[in-house]
Amino acid sequence: MLKLQRIHTPITGELTVPGDKSISHRAVMLSALADGTSEITGFLNSGDCIATVNCFRSLGIEIEERRTVHGAHVVNVHGQGLYGFKKAAGTLYTGNSGTTTRLMAGILAAQPFSSRVTGDASIENRPMMRIIDPLTKMGARIKSEHDNGCCPLLFDGVAPGDMLTGINYHNPVASAQVKSAILLSGLYAEGDTIVHEPAPSRNHTEVMLRAFGADIRHERTHAGTTTSILHPGDPLRAMKITIPGDISSAAFFIAAACLLPDSDLLLKRVGINETRSGILTVLKQMGADITVTNEKGGASEPYADIRVRYAELHGSPSGPFTIAGKLVPTLIDELPIIAVLAAFVPCITVIQNAEELRVKETDRIAAICENLTAMGCNVDDIKDGMVIYGGDKLHGANIKTYGDHRIAMAFAIAALAVDGETTIDDETCVNISYPRFFETLTRLTT
Ligand code: S3P
């Protein structure tokens, strides 16, 4: 348990947040699938990404890790090509990581050996039919061990002489994990694989597959997006990858600077891929003073420095401030901290079309509403989001994280701006994505 108090100082200085979690997972996976040794700099050495490294080691991939003199985590992955994996000796354990579970499923479905995959209690509750269904349509043989559509997952592997077949799949939800699982299986399929989604979800798999040499096409359509993997079976080429800072981790400190008067914070080399940076759009609309400079990275993974200077947020001047529609997938992981900020803004904020939050590490709609209520905020839990009646005076509370890293970090930021003491029941869950979060918070606030 951790106790936090209001602070009366601004948040100032410079910060480099750890590497992007989504890109770190993909870097290990695609490097394992490639021929040759890839070098990944700026890898996120956190619980979720360590789960990916451990799983791929169990599949026979040699992975070395070291730190540079500047403290960056460097990982060398000795890829063995599409068919270089070995059957794991036991169950592949994915911990708390949905990305490890679902993306690796796309690879395991195509292997000529069987596998069993499971994770912690949260993972064993999260929906897996969303990948079982399309992968089964491609010819994969996958079962949910307890027949409940969740982990443990049992993969029979493809029969000798058999192969997966490409599909043309309309994904009902905008989910990068589902899209990526299908595309990764598509690398092994006979025929092209095409995934349509109702709105653009994060595109890191496509961007990185292209960089590794895969023939991948992407189109924005009227309905959403279409991504195709062509010429499956072509080898991937090992490469050097530098991972930008994670905007989802930066979000907590961006929010802190928006909350604490006189703050002026510079976040260096943060990923600003447009499929991830919806939070910047929303905060600017709410009145935040955010400038993005030093943009680099071009067509691959763009990154930039983000400067946040305190400015009083106003939300929407007339009527409720609404976050909905195609914007939602671009800020889905930031909704806990956006909801916290909204509680301080004298305006009604409506978050809609975010039902996916119900099936994240915990039911985040329920967790956010419960904790905001405990702090004295008036909030409605609606089916696909929430309505936050912001601007009331909030107070410290006992925060229940439900083991969810982003709930812990979002309410730790809230604690800095409310009277009285706040307790976070399980602060160690931040290790999932940001192991040094509290050290950094202390450094920037004292
Ligand atoms: C992720 C995709 C998102 C996101 C998750 C990471 C990824 O989930 O919420 O934290 O790395 O692909 P969905 O794809 O299920 O929306």
Put the structure in a nutshell:
28% of the residues lie in helices and 24% in strands.
Can you put this structure into words, describing what you see?
With 446 residues, this protein is α/β, with parallel strands linked by helices. The chain has two domains: 2-18 and 244-445, Enolpyruvate transferase domain (UDP-n-acetylglucosamine1-carboxyvinyl-transferase, Chain, Alpha-beta prism), CATH 3.65.10; 21-156 and 164-236, Alpha-beta prism (UDP-n-acetylglucosamine1-carboxyvinyl-transferase, Chain). 28% of the residues lie in helices and 24% in strands. It contains twelve helices and 23 strands. It has helices at 21-33, 47-58, 98-108, 129-137, 176-186, 204-211, 247-259, 278-286, 335-344, 364-374, 405-415, 437-445, and strands spanning 2-4, 12-15, 35-41, 62-67, 73-80, 92-93, 115-118, 142-144, 153-155, 168-170, 193-197, 215-220, 225-230, 240-242, 264-271, 289-296, 303-309, 321-323, 348-351, 378-382, 385-389, 398-399, 422-424. The strands form six sheets. The protein has a four-stranded mixed sheet. Strand 10, helix 5 and strand 11 form a beta-alpha-beta unit. Helix 9 runs parallel beside helix 10. The protein binds shikimate-3-phosphate.
